[in-house]
């Protein structure tokens, strides 16, 4: 099944289910529209004479990946789409050399997901009850996840989640000091927050507008990456998510300085379309598309992607 067929079938299956998967955005849904439109601002500068051998392999801290593509933080919709959906996604991501990221709530079978041996991130909302935050982080660590993190941009909750409150640098530092796993801060979307994330001790940052689920009229990560890159200055890896749907989108994100790209809705659509095999097909097809664009632009590996291969139109 080709990528476009996978997306179309996934949408059809999810529409026909009659369930609310929270795929829409807040208010006017500007963020969702802009997430799709931003990629049309950039075209590729072709470089095919003396073409290069390419690899999609990359490394994020201590994690070796076959592809610079991971699953963004999602939990709640997946079991609604298919029975044992989280396990199916975990196995598919493991088999394709990708990485899984979970959000709210922490799955009751998180240890079973860890046991699949897929690299696994567990992020936690900044609950007003700070003891609850630490309990969830500790639970994730005890289960053996690869990294733990806080979704800092859920500061006042999301479209579906309430009971959150902004966290201070001091609070984030305290969590960082109490965890033994690499510490991820997700939802960085300004140079200000990038600076504060580094101050708090983040080992990885995720540049994201939270899939249009927090506030309206947010920029896309590509709009902000130049300013964020100046602050981060290669001190920590950057993951980016927000409307990525194709191999060309992924290469554009890498070219702006991300080390990996997160996928949210595409994972859900692929699972709905064809279960575990659908997610495996999704990552495989995206990786193949990415490698084609890398060959045609002279990019040897994800770490060699750079802004010089893009032209703003």
List the helices and strands and how they pair.
Blueprint: H1 3-17, H2 30-37, E1 42-44, E2 58-60, E3 63-65, E4 69-71, H3 77-81, H4 85-95, E5 100-102, H5 110-115, E6 120-124, H6 130-143, E7 147-151, H7 169-178, E8 183-188, H8 191-200, E9 204-207, H9 221-232, E10 238-241, H10 247-255, E11 260-263, H11 265-297, E12 310-312
Parallel strand pairs: 4-11, 5-6, 6-7, 7-8, 8-9, 9-10, 10-11
Antiparallel strand pairs: 1-12, 2-3
Helix pairs in contact: 1-11, 4-11, 7-8, 8-9, 10-11
Describe the structure.
- With 313 residues, this protein is of the alpha/beta class.
- The protein contains eleven helices and twelve strands.
- It has an eight-stranded parallel sheet with strand order 4-11-10-9-8-7-6-5. Strands 1-12 form a two-stranded antiparallel ribbon. The protein has a two-stranded antiparallel ribbon with strand order 2-3.
- α8 links the parallel β8 and β9 (204-207).
- The radius of gyration is 18 Å and the shape is globular.
- The model has no long low-confidence stretch (mean pLDDT 97).
């Amino acid at each position: 099944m080709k990528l476009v067929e996978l997306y179309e079938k996934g949408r059809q299956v999810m529409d026909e289910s009659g369930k609310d998967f929270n795929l829409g955005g807040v208010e006017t849904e500007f963020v969702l529209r802009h997430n799709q439109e931003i990629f049309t601002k950039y075209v590729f500068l072709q470089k095919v004479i003396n073409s290069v051998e390419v690899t999609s392999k990359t490394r994020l801290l201590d994690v070796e990946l076959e592809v610079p593509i991971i699953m963004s933080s999602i939990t709640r919709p997946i079991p609604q789409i298919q029975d044992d959906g989280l396990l199916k996604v975990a196995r598919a991501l493991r088999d394709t050399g990708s990485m899984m990221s979970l959000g709210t709530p922490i799955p009751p079978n998180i240890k079973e997901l860890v046991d699949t041996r897929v690299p696994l991130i567990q992020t936690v909302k900044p609950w007003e009850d700070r003891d609850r935050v630490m309990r969830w982080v500790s639970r994730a660590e005890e289960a053996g996840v690869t990294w733990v993190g806080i979704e800092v941009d859920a500061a006042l909750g999301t479209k579906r989640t309430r009971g959150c409150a902004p966290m201070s640098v001091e609070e984030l530092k305290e969590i960082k000091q109490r965890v033994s796993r690499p510490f991820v801060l997700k939802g960085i979307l300004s140079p200000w927050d990038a600076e504060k994330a580094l101050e708090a001790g983040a080992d990885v940052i995720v540049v994201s507008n939270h899939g249009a689920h927090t506030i309206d009229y947010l920029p896309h990560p590509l709009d902000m990456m130049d300013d964020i890159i100046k602050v981060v200055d290669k001190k920590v890896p950057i993951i980016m998510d927000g409307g990525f749907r194709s191999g060309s989108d992924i290469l554009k994100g890498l070219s702006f300085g991300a080390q990996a790209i997160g996928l949210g809705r595409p994972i859900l659509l692929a699972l709905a379309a064809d279960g575990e095999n659908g997610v495996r097909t999704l990552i495989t097809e995206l990786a193949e598309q990415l490698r084609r664009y890398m060959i045609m632009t002279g990019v040897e590996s994800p770490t060699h992607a750079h802004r010089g291969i893009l032209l703003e139109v």
